[in-house]
Amino acid sequence: MKRLLSLFILTLFLTACTIDSSEDKNTQKSETPAPEPTEEVKTETLPEEEVPEDDRLQFGESAEIDDIELTIHDAEFTKERIPDHFETFEYVIKLSVTYKNNSAVVFPAGRDITITVNDETEATYYDMEGTLLQDVNQGESVTGDIYYAFNGQPEKITAKFEPLLNTEGEHTLFNVFPE
User: Fold this and answer.
1) Cβ atoms 165, 107 nearer than 8 A
2) Stretch (H or E) spanning 21
3) Burial, 153: exposed, middle or buried (Cβ in 10 Å; 0-12, 13-18, 19+)?
4) Which among 96, 98, 153, 174 could disulfide-bond with 159, CB atoms 3.0 to 4.6 Å apart, if both were Cys?
5) How far is the CA of 114 from the CAs of 90, 124, 157, 177, in angstroms?
6) What is the DSSP letter of 50?
7) Is 84 left (phi over 0), alpha (psi -120 to 50) or beta?
């Protein structure tokens, strides 16, 4: 019986504290003056010269990180698909790239680019036959194609180059929307 009575008193106490604190909040809210009506907000558009430029590299431009140079020459949507693939995609994009290894070690090319569609969705690496996946020896270069797949209407496609052996976390962005 004592436990029941103690539980009842504890419940009343907690309820009273809760009601008391919510009354304080309501009191504080009513003490603040109501905002005055504001005039219509005018928005200004920036002149074309002041619109921020796209800082992503374009087709044919090169980026070098940790002595690995990447050039993305072109991008195109392709109708090619992996036969009997477990997942279907609306779009497959093919990047034509060149890697040049200016470092003193062998570099594993082909897995260091990620594609982002509309600044939110990461495309899936799509391992088509003939995809560039090979080691590039020091002082050598290799050219080939890398494929990515995704769903949804693309309006902006960005490639992020971040070499696997990159110790500084550096990366470079490319605009790869097909022309």
Assistant:
1) yes
2) helix 2-31
3) exposed
4) 174
5) 18, 8, 10, 14
6) G
7) left
The letter for the amino acid at 91 is Y
Give the amino acid at 4: L
pTM: 0.68
Instruction: Find all residues with CB under 8 Å of 127, minimum gap 6, and list them.
Output: 82, 133, 147
Longest CA–CA separation in the chain, Å: 87
Q: What is the dihedral of CA 115, 116, 122, 128, to 10 degrees?
A: -30
Q: Which amino acid is at 43?
A: T
Which residue type sits at 23? E
Tokens encoding 8: 């009842």
Report residue 174 as tokens. Answer: 């490319």
What is the dihedral sign for C-alpha 9, 11, 15, 18? positive
Three-state DSSP at 61 gives coil
pLDDT digits (tens, 9 = 90+) for 3-61: 544 545 645 555 555 554 444 444 444 455 554 554 554 444 444 445 456 789 999 99
DSSP string, 163-174: -TT-SS---EEE
